[in-house]
Amino acid sequence: MGLLPGIKKSVKEFGFFCIEGLAPFMAGKGFSSKHRAVNKVLVFAGGGLGDLIWVLPAITSLHKNYPHASITLLAAPSSSAVLELYPEQGIINEVISYEPRGRHRGLGAKLLLVRALRKKGFDLSYAPGRGEGMREEMVMNYLIGAPVRLGYKQGKTGLLNTCALEMSDNVPILRQNLEILRAAGFETTEESVNLEVPHKGIESAESFLKSWGIKRGAPFIVIHPGAAWNAHLKCWPLERYIELISALTRETGQHIVVIGSKGEMASGEALFRGLEGQDLAVNAIGKTSIREMAGIISLSGLFIGNDSGPLHLAQAFDVPAVAIFGYTSPKQIIWRKDRCVVIQPRDTGPLYLHQYDYSRDASDTAALESITVDEVMAGVRRAAAAMR
What we know:
α3 packs across α13, α8 packs across α12 (290-299) and α10 crosses α16. The relative contact order is 0.12. The chain folds into two domains: 30-183, Rossmann fold, CATH 3.40.50.2000; 199-387, Glycogen Phosphorylase B (Rossmann fold, 3-Layer(aba) Sandwich). The strands form two sheets. It has a six-stranded parallel sheet with strand order 3-2-1-4-5-6, sandwiched between helices. Strands 9-8-7-10-11-12 form a six-stranded parallel sheet, with helices on both faces. By secondary structure, the protein is α/β, with parallel strands linked by helices. It starts with a helix and ends with a helix. It is built from 16 helices and twelve strands.
């Protein structure tokens, strides 16, 4: 990082730190859902695809508690595409783009966004931010001005919320997102994600698969070797995926459809150079919309991948999965333990547990690199046995 960007980052962090330090004097009173009229709700979902998926049950719950209130969703464009798969998307009245790693990265851009949102006069804001960026989001949530602010807390971070739940290291985040609402006295939905692939999405997925010789109803496996956030820390080595795909085709005789975003195409090309001559491997990286990708996952018999958005789609669609973990904790990520085999070394070292003050270390990838192809294949066999 250059000198000027480094100074700007330090100034921004110091500003948020100072506001947070005044939290005990600024937060206001607690909240009882039974004694306040709520007409405008803001849902703050500034993370990736998985983060938004985990928030959807809470959005459903907020609507059921306040059916006449308008709901505004603040989300990244790359994540909000998943709303195409959300049957209840009609309960969201407005979606506003938020790009914390893009055009809203700087302090000035964040404050301009806060100013625009403040004018809307929200009665309640729900901001389940955690991990990196948590401090910024909690301060922004306070400045937006809703008298009722629901979210997490870690140390002093989160004290600006009027109802704050202590973040847990060993409970699925989807469940914790609903527990925030329960702590405020709301009734909540069941702890599951209601996603559906539209008929046209299934048709497009079947057409794509057919072009690669995969007939309707034929078994195939989906692999996602990438990740959108902190990919260098969350991705199992590419050469292991090459070995894994070769082992899977030998053992199962099934097609292996490799999925990913356009941003993962370069690594995908490297992977397929290593698979030259492998006729059963299908390169779908960057070639499908999120709706088509979801259709492919929903039609598959098994999903294998890192901790990333497509893994959460597989869980939502009840597809058996083998999830490869090393840097993050499956206890916070996996909510369908009955349908997911987790591969993680016993000796992982310190894990990223969505701490707002986590500092990366070069050794963070060591656990992932220690996982062998044989271990993942054993997980595939366990998943197959569980399906019988």
